[in-house]
Structure prediction request, 192 residues.
Amino acid sequence: MLRETGALRDGHFEYPNGLHTDEYLQVALAFRYYQYAKMLSVGLSRRLRADSEIRAMIKELSIVCPNTGGLPIAYGVCEALRAHQVYWAEQDTDSSPMRFRQFIEPQKGEKVLLVDDILRSGRRLTELRSLVESKGAQIVGLAVAVYQPNPTVAKFGGLPLFFLTQMDASYYKDSASCELCHKGVPVEKVWA
Ligand SMILES: [Zn+2]
Prediction:
């Protein structure tokens, strides 16, 4: 599905943090298609429902995603789980702090699950975690469609991580150590 929709690309890519890789995944490309979005969300919700602790709190569980790009999977998981509601964070620019809209934010003691389409460096979910915790809400876990950890992926302490699939890419820490650079393969810069 990821290949068919162009979400999974082979090639030679450079991330903003300087890492080079042979594979790039832009899960949003698969979420353009409603039926695929639904399949991925239902699949992920089944992983969540299989967890007895999550299952016991579904009715009061809120879903929070780190940006509006996460809304398709957040609503998909919320619907499939029959969870309580959805929140999303926003940023004015890539470098400005994440925030919730006025009056639309998790409340103190509210149980929330952080959801995104992919976990790669964990940077966005780490920032979202701090923001949600600053509101006093209780994070019960993280759920992503694809887990593609890079070598410096953030740690989330004891929080359970749910994912549909893990996809490992080859990472090179810079162009000097990159086999593709050595072979002279043209590099494509990716934004995120
Ligand atoms: Zn390279």
